[in-house]
Structures are given as C-alpha cells and as structure tokens.
ATP synthase subunit c (Christiangramia fulva), 89 residues
Amino acid sequence: MDNITIIGIASIITAGLTTGIGTMLPALSEGKAIASALSSLAQQPDASSTITRTLFVGLAMIESTAIYCFVVSMILIFANPFWNFIIAK
C-alpha cells in the first residue's frame, strides 16, 4: 500500500468519525437543553422570555459545534493538506 492510499483511508475514516461524533453529541445536548428549558418554563412561567432567549442562544452555540465538525470533515476529504505534500514529493 502506498502513502497516498494510506492518507486517503485515514482521511475518510477520520472524516466519518468526526461527522458521526460531531452530529450525535450536539443532538443529544440539544435534546437535554430543550428538556431542561421546558422543565424551567413549567416551574417559572413568568420568566419565559428570559428562558427562551437563553435557550435559543445555547442552541445556536451547540449547533455551531456540529457545523464545525462538518467543516473539518469536508476539509479532510476535499482539501487535505497532506495530499499536496505527498504529491509534491
């Protein structure tokens, strides 16, 4: 097996793991955040605007983690810097 094949296999496996873990954990976190927010809204309905605003900011930050993982996996597949290094040799 040559170096290009090894880099290709490692890139694809790493991209798959990054996408799998990077989408699974934020989804679980979003579910937990929403459940906590609904529980808080049930206990304190007067603070609904504050809880809702905080929930949306938190969900956006959690979602950005999944987007970063997706971007890293796309870079590993389509713009891996090791490809140019190996091909230049």
In short: The mean pLDDT is 91.
